[in-house]
Amino acid sequence: MTSAEGIDEIHILWISEGMSCDGDTVSITASSQPAIEDVVNGLIPGLPKVHLYNKVLSPTLGGEEFLAPFRAAVKGELEPFIFVLEGSVPNEKINGDGYWSSFGNDQDTGEPLTLNWWIDRLAPKAWAVVTAGTCAAYGGIHAMAGNPTGCMGLADYLGWDFRSAGGLPIVNVPGCPVQPENFMETLTWVLYHAAGDAPPPPLDDKLRPQWMFGKTVHEGCDRAAYYEQADFSKDYNSPKCQVKIGCWGPVVNCNVPKRGWMGGIGGCPNVGGICIGCTMPGFPDKFMPFMDAPPGGSLSTTLIKPYGTFIRRMRGITNVTANKEPKWHHNRELLTSGYDPRWRP
C-alpha cells in the first residue's frame, strides 16, 4: 500500500534457497537493535506495516501455504515488497540434467522451480533487493575456487548496475554469518526510506552500507594498540595483536569488533578469534589458508618493531611515573602543594 508520502504497508519475501546454511536467518534472530519481532509487530515508530515471509520464522506449516505470497508476487498480485536473498546464486546454465537449488514446484508440470527462476521474476518487481550474508552478497564459501556450481553473488547474477523498482541498487549486508544488528539496522533504514522518512542508505562501491563497512577491523579492534607497540601474540591464548598468527584485521572492512556480536559483546578478535575476512568480496579464496600470517604481515610487523619497542618502553616509564601520587599528599603541618595566595590584596 503506497501513499503520496511513502509506503504504508510492505511485504518482505525472504528466500534462503541460495547455496546456504540458513545461518544468516538464525543470526538475525539475535538482533535487539532492533529486534525482528519489533519490526514485524509494528513497535518501531515510523515504519510501514511489515509482513515477513521467511521459512525459518514462518508460522505456516510450509508447502503451498508458505509459497502463496511468493507466487502472488510473481503474478504482480502482491506489492510492494522487499526481496531478501540468503545464500549464493548457482549457475543453472551448467547444471547438466538436474538443478542446483530449487524453491517449490511448478504447479502445472510438478518440476522444481530453481532459485534463478524466482530471482528472475521477483527482483525486477521488488521495491528493494537486500542480500543477507556474504554468500548472497559475493558468493562466499560456495563460490570458492574448485566449486562445481559456478556460484556467485546476487550482483554478479543481476548485474552491478541493477536497480530495483524503488530505484535502489542491491543492498549488500555481508558477514558469515551476517552480524545481527548490521542486517536489522540496514533493513530498518530501507524501511524508513520506503516510508519516505529517510534518504536511500549510503553504499560503498561493493554495495555495502558505508557507515558499517567504511572502516577496518583493525580500526575498531580491542587489540589494535598492541600492534602499534609491536607487541604480538605468539599463540591463541594471548590477549595481544594477532596479525602474526593469521589475523587479516588491518585490511578487512568490518565493524564487528567495534559493535560486538550479541548485545555489544564479542566480535572475532575481541574474543581471541582471528579475522578471516568474511565480509569481503574475495572471501574465502584471498584469505586462505586461514591460520597463516597474511602476506605483508611479516613486513609490516618487522617495520613497526623498532618504533613499537621504543614507544612501549617509554610508555612503561611514564606509566610508573603516573602511578605515583604527588609528594604534597601528606598529613603534616606544612602545606607543600605550591599554593600561593599572592594575588590577594
From TrEMBL:
<comment type="similarity">
    <text>Belongs to the [NiFe]/[NiFeSe] hydrogenase small subunit family.</text>
</comment>
<dbReference type="GO" id="GO:0016020">
    <property type="term" value="C:membrane"/>
</dbReference>
<keyword id="KW-0560">Oxidoreductase</keyword>
<keyword id="KW-0408">Iron</keyword>
<keyword id="KW-0004">4Fe-4S</keyword>
<keyword id="KW-0411">Iron-sulfur</keyword>
<dbReference type="InterPro" id="IPR006137">
    <property type="entry name" value="NADH_UbQ_OxRdtase-like_20kDa"/>
</dbReference>
<feature type="domain" description="Cytochrome-c3 hydrogenase C-terminal">
    <location>
        <begin position="213"/>
        <end position="290"/>
    </location>
</feature>
<dbReference type="InterPro" id="IPR001821">
    <property type="entry name" value="NiFe_hydrogenase_ssu"/>
</dbReference>
<feature type="binding site">
    <location>
        <position position="21"/>
    </location>
    <ligand>
        <name>[4Fe-4S] cluster 1</name>
    </ligand>
</feature>
<feature type="binding site">
    <location>
        <position position="241"/>
    </location>
    <ligand>
        <name>[4Fe-4S] cluster 2</name>
    </ligand>
</feature>
<dbReference type="GO" id="GO:0051538">
    <property type="term" value="F:3 iron, 4 sulfur cluster binding"/>
</dbReference>
<dbReference type="GO" id="GO:0046872">
    <property type="term" value="F:metal ion binding"/>
</dbReference>
<dbReference type="InterPro" id="IPR027394">
    <property type="entry name" value="Cytochrome-c3_hydrogenase_C"/>
</dbReference>
<feature type="binding site">
    <location>
        <position position="247"/>
    </location>
    <ligand>
        <name>[4Fe-4S] cluster 2</name>
    </ligand>
</feature>
<keyword id="KW-0732">Signal</keyword>
<feature type="binding site">
    <location>
        <position position="135"/>
    </location>
    <ligand>
        <name>[4Fe-4S] cluster 1</name>
    </ligand>
</feature>
<dbReference type="GO" id="GO:0009375">
    <property type="term" value="C:ferredoxin hydrogenase complex"/>
</dbReference>
<dbReference type="InterPro" id="IPR037148">
    <property type="entry name" value="NiFe-Hase_small_C_sf"/>
</dbReference>
<keyword id="KW-0479">Metal-binding</keyword>
<dbReference type="GO" id="GO:0009055">
    <property type="term" value="F:electron transfer activity"/>
</dbReference>
<feature type="binding site">
    <location>
        <position position="278"/>
    </location>
    <ligand>
        <name>[3Fe-4S] cluster</name>
    </ligand>
</feature>
<feature type="binding site">
    <location>
        <position position="221"/>
    </location>
    <ligand>
        <name>[4Fe-4S] cluster 2</name>
    </ligand>
</feature>
<dbReference type="GO" id="GO:0008901">
    <property type="term" value="F:ferredoxin hydrogenase activity"/>
</dbReference>
<dbReference type="Pfam" id="PF01058">
    <property type="entry name" value="Oxidored_q6"/>
</dbReference>
<feature type="domain" description="NADH:ubiquinone oxidoreductase-like 20kDa subunit">
    <location>
        <begin position="21"/>
        <end position="188"/>
    </location>
</feature>
<feature type="binding site">
    <location>
        <position position="176"/>
    </location>
    <ligand>
        <name>[4Fe-4S] cluster 1</name>
    </ligand>
</feature>
<dbReference type="InterPro" id="IPR037024">
    <property type="entry name" value="NiFe_Hase_small_N_sf"/>
</dbReference>
<feature type="binding site">
    <location>
        <position position="218"/>
    </location>
    <ligand>
        <name>[4Fe-4S] cluster 2</name>
    </ligand>
</feature>
<feature type="binding site">
    <location>
        <position position="275"/>
    </location>
    <ligand>
        <name>[3Fe-4S] cluster</name>
    </ligand>
</feature>
<dbReference type="Pfam" id="PF14720">
    <property type="entry name" value="NiFe_hyd_SSU_C"/>
</dbReference>
<keyword id="KW-0003">3Fe-4S</keyword>
<dbReference type="GO" id="GO:0030313">
    <property type="term" value="C:cell envelope"/>
</dbReference>
<protein>
    <submittedName>
        <fullName>Hydrogenase expression protein HypE</fullName>
    </submittedName>
</protein>
<dbReference type="GO" id="GO:0044569">
    <property type="term" value="C:[Ni-Fe] hydrogenase complex"/>
</dbReference>
<dbReference type="GO" id="GO:0051539">
    <property type="term" value="F:4 iron, 4 sulfur cluster binding"/>
</dbReference>
<comment type="subunit">
    <text>Heterodimer of a large and a small subunit.</text>
</comment>
<dbReference type="GO" id="GO:0009061">
    <property type="term" value="P:anaerobic respiration"/>
</dbReference>
